[in-house]
Amino acid sequence: MPPKKRIYYIDNVRSAVIALVILFHSAVAYSQVFTTRIEWYVLDGSCQFYDYLCVFFDTSLMATMFFAAGYFALASLIKHGAVQFVKDKLWRLFVPFLLGTIFLNPFPNFIRATLEGKIDTSYFSYWIYNYLSSMQYQLAHSKASVHLWFISMLFLFLLVLAFLYTLAKPFFEEKYTAAKPTIIQLLCFFSIGALGMITVNTFFEDFGQWYTVADFWTTQPTRLPLYIVYFTFGIVAWRYQWADKGFTNGLLGWLVTATAFNAFHLWFVVNHFELLDRDWPVTMIHTLAHSLACFSLFMLTLSFFKQKLNVGGTLAKKLSQNSYAIYIVHLNFVIALQYCLLNYNIAIHLKFLIVMSVSALASYLSSEYILKRVPILNKMLY
Asked: Could you give the CA distance from residue 155 to residue 90 in angstroms, rounded to a whole number?
C-alpha cells in the first residue's frame, strides 16, 4: 500500500479547477457556441473570444476533477472499509446533492424561465408549484441537477468502486512497487478514453448534449467514457504512486503538445460548430481532437503543478478546504450577477470580469465565514 503522504499539488490542482469552473460559468453567458448548445440561464450577447475561452476550459476541467477524486478514493476505501466508505459518501455527496437540488438549483432555473417568459410569478411560488411539481417542472424546462451533476456522477462512480472492492478485496489491497508512468501506459489511457467517446458518439446524435433522467439527474453521455477513464487513472496513479514519482519532467514537451492540440481543437469546434452533430466524419474528427486536447492539457496541468506548485502553505490549505463548498454555491452567485448586469450597457469584457471576480469572492467568503460555522454543514462539506 502506498505511504500515507499527502500530495499537495493534487489538492492545488483541484482548487485551481474549481476556480476555473467559476471562470467558465462566468463566460458562458457571453458565448454563442455554448449558449446555443446548453441553453444557458442568462444570454447577454456574444463575443467569439468567449467561444474560444469556453471551448478551451470545457475540454479538460471535469476530467481533471474525476482524476483527483479517483486518486483519493481508494486510500479512503481501504482505510475505512466498504460499508463505512459508502456511509461517508452518502453524507458527503448524496445528501449535499439532494439539498442543493432542492434549495440551490431552483434559482438558476427560475431566472431562465422568467427571462424566457414561461412564468410570471414569485420565486417562492415557482419553487413550490413549478420546480417541485413534476408536471409544471416540464413546463419550466428546468434541469434539476444543474452543476451538481458532477457530485451525483461521482457518487455513482464511488458506489461502483466500493462494490468492486467487496468482490475483489485482495486485488485492490495488493502492494505494488512505486514507479513512474510509462509512455505506453499513458497512451493506453488516452486510447481507451478516445475509443470510448467515439463509440458512444455513434449512439448519440448530439455531441456534448445534456440529458435529464427522471426529472432529477442530468448527465452527458458522450463524455461519460472520458470521465470513467480519468477516474480510473486517478485510482491507478495512487496505487503505483505515479503522482509522487511521475510528472517530474517533460513540462516543455507537454506545453508544446497541449498548445498544438488545443489550438486545433478550438479552431475546429468554433469553425465547424454547425456540422458537429450532422456530419459523421466531422463528429469523429471532433471527438478525437477533443480527446487529444483533453489529455495533453491534463498532462500539462499535472506536470506544471507537480514541478511548480507542489506546496501546502496557508493559502493553499484554505482554498483546498473550501473548494467543495465553493463549487456547490458558486453558480447562484454567477447567475445572479449575470442577471443583474443584463440590462446595463457596458462592455461584455467588463461584465465578465465583474461576474467572475465577485462570484469567486462571494463563494469563498460564504464558505469560509458562513457555511463552515454551521456545525452540520461543517461536517458535511469540510
From this structure: 8
Considering the chain, what is the average pLDDT of its residues? 88
Cβ neighbours of residue 318 under 8 Å, at least 6 residues apart? 368
Whole-angstrom CA distances from 355 to 111, 119, 183, 275, 382 are 16, 25, 41, 32, 26
Looking at the DSSP assignment, which residues form a beta bridge with residue 186?
A: none
More confident residue, 313 or 321: 321
SS (H, E, C) the chain: CCCCCCCHHHHHHHHHHHHHHHHHHHHHCCCHHHHHHHCCCCCCCCCHHHHHHHHHHHHHHHHHHHHHHHHHHHHHHHHHCHHHHHHHHHHHHHHHHHHHHHHCCHHHHHHHHHHCCCCCCCHHHHHHHHHCCHHHHHHHCCCCCHHHHHHHHHHHHHHHHHHHHHHCHHHHHCCCCCCCCCHHHHHHHHHHHHHHHHHHHCCCCCCCCCEEECCCEEECHHHHHHHHHHHHHHHHHHHCCHHHHCCCCCHHHHHHHHHHHHHHHHHHHHHCHHHCCCCHHHHHHHHHHHHHHHHHHHHHHHHHHHHHCCCCCHHHHHHHHHHHHHHHHHHHHHHHHHHHCCCCCCCHHHHHHHHHHHHHHHHHHHHHHCHHHCHHHHHHHC
Residue range 202-225: mean pLDDT, rounded: 73
More reliable by pLDDT, 242 or 23: 23
CA dist 250 and 200 (Å) reads 32
What pLDDT is stored for residue 176 in this prediction? 78
Q: What is the mean pLDDT of residues 192-211?
A: 78
Q: What is the pLDDT of residue 70?
A: 96
Helix 48-80, helix 251-271: angle, nearest 10 = 130
Which residues fall within 8 angstroms of residue 119, CB to CB, at 6 or more apart?
Answer: 110, 113, 126, 130, 140
* Cα distance between residue 126 and residue 139, in whole Å: 11
- Backbone phi and psi for residue 64, each to the nearest 5 degrees, phi listed first: -65, -35
